[in-house]
Design brief:
The protein is an all-alpha fold and 352 residues long. 83% of the residues lie in helices and 0% in strands. α4 runs antiparallel to α5 and α11 packs antiparallel against α12. The protein is elongated, with a radius of gyration of 51 Å. It starts with a helix and ends with a helix.
Length: 352
């Protein structure tokens, strides 16, 4: 007990000695606060907790404004990003639908063109082109439809557009050559056929055959009176293995030979043309086509007869005229029958 009492007494004495020091420090701190406030120009008050500092309020306002603009910025960016995603997804959906529409219009236009429904073909192909996703073939097909309708200006515009989009398209050059041919611009047509031949060599098209390209250039050279060039082109056409030989190639080369005074070669070509026609007639299914081929054969026999007369081959000439007369009679072509009969009378009178 005595030990505890003495300990408690020592603690009380220590506390009593600390208290005056605490009071002294508190008084000194108050004096310092007065000095600080005097420097800042603020009147000292007994309780500093009740002091008002306007700077603390301004800081809160500034932070509020900054946070507001940051939040608004992120909100706007978020909405714009969402809208862009929505527009992009809508665009992708429309684009895919448009591609399907273009394909459908193109196929339907192609079908109508093959069926000779020219107006419908033009309408469908125009719809395909207006989608903005149509390929070069749509312009080429619409150009061919315009060409069949007789609207050469519109056809020419489409072929020009096709060539502008794909400079190495042999079909576009060839079709434009056909338009220039119908417009009797043979020089331009020849240039396009040359371009088609070059394009076909680099990037062959299944639609075209080199045989046909050479034959077309031979025809243009024939009309431009480039006889040697025509013979060379027709010969190249006939020498190629691809495609079907047209009797007109032999007949037109015969014309070039005739212009070069090579009558024997011309007679052989007319004979070849008639032979090809005979083979084709056997495979025809319509009366109209059979009559057309027969009429051509009659014309070739008559031209061959004239060449044989110039060569002095009277018997061959008479035989050609007789063959031509037989065809005219089968066609009930009274005008041709009368003309051929008069020619045969003339040959017989010459021999007498």
């Amino acid at each position: 007990m005595e030990k505890n009492t003495s300990k408690k007494g020592r603690n009380s004495a220590k506390t009593a000695s600390v208290a005056p020091m605490t009071k002294k420090l508190t008084k000194e701190m108050r004096e310092v606060n007065k000095d600080v406030l005097a420097v800042k120009g603020t009147k000292a008050t007994p309780d500093c907790k009740q002091c008002f500092n306007p700077w603390s309020l301004s800081i809160y306002i500034y932070w509020f404004i900054i946070l507001f603009f940051i939040s608004a910025t992120f909100y706007i960016l978020g909405r714009s990003h969402g809208m862009m995603n929505q527009v992009q997804s809508m665009s992708n959906g429309v684009s895919e639908e448009t591609l399907l529409q273009a394909s459908d219009y193109y196929e339907r236009g192609k079908t109508n063109l093959l069926a000779k429904n020219i107006a419908d073909a033009i309408s469908d192909l125009t719809a395909a082109i207006e989608t903005g996703t149509a390929n070069v073939d749509a312009y080429i097909l619409r150009g061919e439809a315009y060409m069949q309708s007789g609207d050469y200006a519109a056809a020419l515009n489409d072929f020009n557009m096709a060539i502008e989009k794909e400079a190495g398209n042999a079909v576009a050059y060839y079709d434009r050559a056909l338009i220039y041919t119908r417009m009797e611009n043979y020089d331009a047509a020849l240039a396009d056929v040359n371009a088609a031949l070059a394009a076909q060599t680099v990037s062959p098209s299944e639609i075209l055959q080199m045989r046909d390209l050479y034959a077309k250039r031979g025809q243009l050279n024939l009309w431009l009176k480039n006889w040697d060039g025509a013979v060379a082109d027709y010969t190249n056409s006939l020498a190629l293995p691809d495609g079907i030989i047209s009797p007109s190639v032999y007949a037109e080369r015969a014309e070039a030979y005739t212009a070069l005074n090579k009558y024997s070669e011309a007679v052989l070509d007319y004979d070849s043309a008639v032979r090809v026609i005979s083979e084709q007639i056997a495979g025809t299914t319509t009366t109209e086509e059979r009559e057309r081929l027969s009429s051509n054969a009659m014309s070739y026999y008559e031209k061959s007869a004239a060449l044989n007369l110039n060569l002095g081959n009277i018997d061959d000439a008479r035989r050609d005229l007789e063959s031509a007369y037989t065809i005219a009679a089968a066609l009930n072509d009274a005008t041709s029958m009368e003309r051929l009969q008069n020619l045969m009378i003339g040959i017989n009178s010459t021999q007498e």
